[in-house]
Amino acid sequence: MLPRCGWTTILLAGFLTLTGFARSQAPTAAVIVAAPSASNVSIELVDAEFASTGELRTPGPGAVWEAVALPDSWRKMLRDRHRLGWYRVYFDLAVVPETPQAIYIPRITNNIALHVNGLLLGTSGNLENREMSWNLAQMFVVPSRMLKSGRNEILIRLHPDGMLRAGLSRLHIGDEIQMRELFDRRILYQSTAPKFIAALLALTALLSIALWASRRQETVFGFFALLCMAMIARLWHTFTRDSDSWGWVFAAPSIAWMMAIQTYFVLRFCGQASPRFERFIAIFALAATALLMLSSKAIIVVAVFVTNTLVALVMLAILARALTRVPKLENLTLLAAVVINFLLAMHDLINYQEQLDFDTLYLLPLGGPLLLFAVAILLIRRFVDVLQKHESLNTELASRVREREHELAQSYERLRALDKQRTTAEERQRLMRDMHDGIGSHLMSTLALARVSSLSQHQLEETLADCIDELKLTIDSLEPVESDLLVVLGNLRYRLEPRLQAAGISLEWAVSDLPPLAYLDPENVRSVLRIVQEAFTNTLKHAHAKRITLSTGVDYANARVFVRVTDDGVGLGASKPSGRGLDNMKIRAAKLHGEVEFVPLKGGGACVNLYLPLAKMA
Amino acid sequence: MPRVLIVEDDPAFRARYAAMLANDASFDVVASVGTGGEGLAMLELRKPDVLLVDLGLPDMSGIEVIRHASLTSPKCECMVVTVFGDEEHVLASIEAGAAGYLLKDASEESFLSGIRELMNGGSPISPIIARRLLKRFQAVPPASVTVAAADDESSSVALSDREREILLLASKGFNYPEMGKLMSISPHTVTSHVKKIYRKLAVHSRGEAVFEANRMGLIRTL
Description:
The complex is a heterodimer. Chain A is of the alpha+beta class. Chain A folds into 3 domains: about 25-185, Galactose-binding domain-like (Jelly Rolls, Sandwich), CATH 2.60.120.260; about 215-365; about 480-615, Heat Shock Protein 90 (2-Layer Sandwich). Chain A has helices spanning about 1-25, 175-215, 220-240, 245-250, 255-270, 275-295, 300-325, 330-350, 370-450, 455-480, 485-500, 520-545, 570-575, 580-590, and strands spanning about 45, 45-50, 65-70, 70-75, 85-95, 100-105, 110, 110-115, 120-125, 140, 150-160, 165-170, 170-175, 505-510, 545-555, 560-565, 595-600, 605-615. In chain A, the strands form 4 sheets. Chain A has a 6-stranded antiparallel β-sheet, with no helix packed on it. Chain A has a 5-stranded mixed β-sheet with strand order 14-15-16-18-17. In chain A, strands 1-13-6-10 form a 4-stranded antiparallel β-sheet. In chain A, helix 12 packs antiparallel against helix 14. The longest helix of chain A is centred in the middle third of the chain and has 84 residues, at about 370-450. Chain A is rod-shaped and about 170 Å long. Chain B is an alpha/beta fold. Chain B is about 55% helix and about 10% strand. Chain B is built from 9 helices and 5 strands; from the N terminus they run βαβαβαβαβααααα. Chain B has helices at about 10-25, 35-45, 60-70, 85-95, 110-120, 125-140, 160-170, 175-185, 185-215, and strands spanning about 5, 30-35, 50-55, 75-80, 100-105. Chain B has a 5-stranded parallel β-sheet, sandwiched between helices. In chain B, helix 8 packs across helix 9. The interface of A and B includes residues 481, 489, 492 and 502 of A.
């Protein structure tokens, strides 16, 4: 492909030099005399004659022809844009070329019918329904047969269109292949590229709308979609052939829309909305639209366009300030795109005002891709930024989680230490209380008795034995029994058995299995032991019993278990110990959410019932 | 006549034990010493049938003396004399090889009957200790710990069903005569079962020690 491109360039360069040369060689000749002797020579026809007949008929001999230079702009020449006009151009051929020749016309406004040597060669479009050709280059192939050596005549009937400027550009005649190349290139820029760009914009608009629909807070995308649509509206009239299309309504106002929406988009993007200017530019766009819809007079259009340019300058200043506040690549790219589009629009306005050559291309239709490119860069930067932020956030999150885990572990460790401390403290407190209330007070009373020296050997032994019993009870209560009350009672029996035997009392062990009592911690075990031990001690000391029975059982109806100690002694009346002992038993039972009852038996003897709940109540 | 060795550092208790045993013509106190070292020497020298040992000796723990005795003099019955008969001390003693225990504050009668019972092949047991033993043997699946033929008494330390039942009843507070009645065996059989259980515990813990030592590379072969 590259060599061909090279060739194209060389050919084009050659063409330019040649035409330049041709023009400088024969600038004044009304009739072209240069003869394309070789097939690859083309000539540019500049000198023509014009006759404003207003008729479809070929002008007769009586027609008035005036000499004009091509390109010929009707506005410049102050011609009536509603009257048909005729052009006549001559060119001389020394030899009739063997290859087909072609006439290439960069711009016609709006339509022509072209005759060569008196024969109709073709038209630029349907003349009946004013098919639009104002921005569509034309090429007519001229068969060699139609040409003759010497003078040849091109006769062009030009159909102007009331709503467009009218005129005819230079004509080029030459070898068909060469002309086609020029023609194709022109068509590419005039209409093919704008069509592609319109399609691209339509796609982008759809994508932007989709983006905006899923992220409503990002109005930037909504405005960009609108901008794309305004640009499509603007592009439409550059390639449409349909003169009746409603798209024409938007052709002029769309410039104002583009400007207004561009402002909204850029300022939103920079996060620097300027409500006053935005309101102003919206009002301006609406007013311009209304004005242009009411009248399509050139003066109004021009007035609107000039005002538009002034507003656009203010817009550029505001956008430039907003975009350069943070001089990031994407901001500067966007600014460049906006500025270049503005310059293209300026160029087109000047072109439209006939201040440039009539042939000159309109460039704004080609500016869309610049904006798209800038926005693509912007989106990519944003996407990358978000990804990076996300990644760094993840890392940060991970480290935060680690930190938090560490803190939790520490606080857990602290709590555990505290808990251990608390448990130890409670245990110590309990043991202290035990020693204080139990063995301590026993020893104290023994000491007190010994001091008044009224203590017999037997009393001393008994008191000390009591102390040791207390101690054993405390030690036994420390064993984790895991809710097993029978073990507790069994161990008490094991402790008491020698004393019972010594007292000649037989013990009947009539226990039955008990469900586990979950609340039996050392403290509660000790309470149970104390109560039962007290019952035994009372019997031992006061009842004169021969036989004691301990039985256990479950009273499911009342959700409790019972421990029953019965004796065959002298009964409660005589054996009733000091009130304090019984009260202590009751208090202890109440602490366990249980109950103690003393029942006298008929044949003498007594029964002590200890009831304990199956589950600890709240 | 059973020959008794007393190892007790408290002279008052030492004297009391000696006096109690002297009162009974069926016992012969061969030595009464105050330190573990002396105890070990007397063990060698006098070959006693019964060893009464206190746990808190000045030069070593009574447990050490028991372990030594059960290894060097397997015929000698070891009894530990404890203040409270608490399970920690008792179990440690049994693991070391003791066959029974006595309480320091026991009356002369129960003290002597305790020794006599032991000589007859019976051991005492408290509900809490029974419970502990149940859990201890539960933790070890029957077949997993077997002691090699080095121990000719038993090759397995798993509890038999009967032994398990005895421990269960003991943990509920039943005494030997009651257990015998409940199981339709004589009280004497019950106590001998308990003694067997104690021996199993000792073997078990010795097995564990050997296993441990083996694992650590302290001994090559059994």
